[in-house]
Amino acid sequence: MSKSALSLALTGSFATYGAGQIFSGICGDRFRPKKLVLYGLIATSLMNNIIPFCQSPILMLVVWSINGFAQAFMWPPMVKLMSDLFSLEEYQKACVIIARGSSFGTIIIYLISPVLIALSGWKTVFGFSALCGIVMIYFCNRLCPDINDTKTETAKINRVQHGKGPSLFSPLMLSIMLAIILQGTLRDGVTTWMPSCISETYHLGNEISILTGVVLPVFSMICYQVTSFLYKNKFRSPLSCAGVIFAAGTISSLALYFLSDANAAFSVLFSAMLTGCMHGVNLMLISILPRFFSKYGNVSTVSGVLNACTYIGSALSTYGIAVISENRGWHFTILLWVVIAALGTAVCLICVKPWKKSGIAE
After folding, report:
1. For residues 343 and 272, what is the distance between their CA atoms, to the nearest angstrom?
2. Rg of the chain on CA atoms, in Å
3. What is the pLDDT of residue 282?
4. Phi-psi bin for 165: left (phi > 0), alpha (psi -120 to 50), beta?
């Protein structure tokens, strides 16, 4: 199958994940978050078991789109749980820990996939993933706390005291959404297609190219720590910190553009630095920023809407990068990454003063 045909399933899952984030976010403010997470885990485990039986790109698109919607019921309810149960400092630590967990899961699948493919074919990768989901259903049900009535009443009191909060369609929030879309375009677009870029540019085997993808989440884990340190010690504004990290991503993409033909190691290194920076931006704008809306009682909704913007970028880039790289080559594609990173930097830095004046962070 061609890259563009295969990318349909990924694009569909990103699109339904993004749309599901909004629905999940609204539900997270109104229903028991723990139950939503459990339902999402059950559905995604089922879809991973079904995907090996799909024999065409269209069937893969349908199943994987359902999978994307199911996985949308993870993050916004988790944000609701953490914002109600944790102090601000505990919340920030928990966001970094969860982000590291996501990167660790990516490392595991990148390491195990080539082995499973070599031993018994691609279908076993999804069987392994479904098994992981089943294990997490058990642990989530046993160990994850639920929000009690006292916490719910406290949230209602806060909502009465502070009002509904700023509109999600204000110029400030729309600008933040644009920055998140640009971040998602780079984060998931580069992560998805970097192994293909390495394989086609340097004529490496698929298994070796997939293994190079292990470097990306390793750098992401490092960037989570660096971003968290900068936010706590240098910047108290998530937008200031996001702007600086976006700028570092711009420099990384420039280096990738000028040195991508040098050797595979340089390409992997600067791709990893670029995606790591985007994960740092994601930590600020998707994890830390929504916590400021907890006093308005809509933290899950805000989290869902903002996270949906990430996957607008993801959906656009997953299909777009496949088409552009097929028609214009990887060098031109990487140049677009430079432009996107520079634009994201500008948007974040422009939003710094309006964010301070908005009163949201008080």
Report:
1. 20
2. 20
3. 93
4. left
11 close to 318: Cβ distance less than 8 angstroms: yes
Residue 269 pLDDT more than 60? yes
Which pLDDT band holds residue 164 (cuts at 50, 70, 90)?
low
Of the pLDDT bands very low, low, confident and very high (cuts 50, 70, 90), residue 155 is: low
- DSSP assignments along 289-339, one per residue: GGGGGGGGT-HHHHHHHHHHHHHHHHHHHHHHHHHHHHHH-HHHHHHHHHH
The CA distance from 159 to 240, in Å, is 27
pTM for this predicted structure: 0.79
Two tokens at 218?
Answer: 């390793």
Helix, strand, coil percentages (3-state) for the chain, rounded to 5, are: 85, 0, 15
* Residue among 177, 185, 341, 191 at smallest CA distance from 255: 341
Which amino acid does the sequence have at 269? L
Percentage above 90 pLDDT, the chain? 39
- What is the pLDDT averaged over residues 146-159? 56
Please choose, from the candidates 17, 18, 140, 16, the residue with its C-alpha nearest in 3D space to the C-alpha of residue 78: 140
- The tally of CA atoms less than 13 A away on the side-chain side of residue 278 is 34
**Angle, helix 123-143 to helix 33-50, in steps of 10 degrees:** 160
**Which structural domains are found in the chain, ordered by start?**
3-358 (1.20.1250.20)
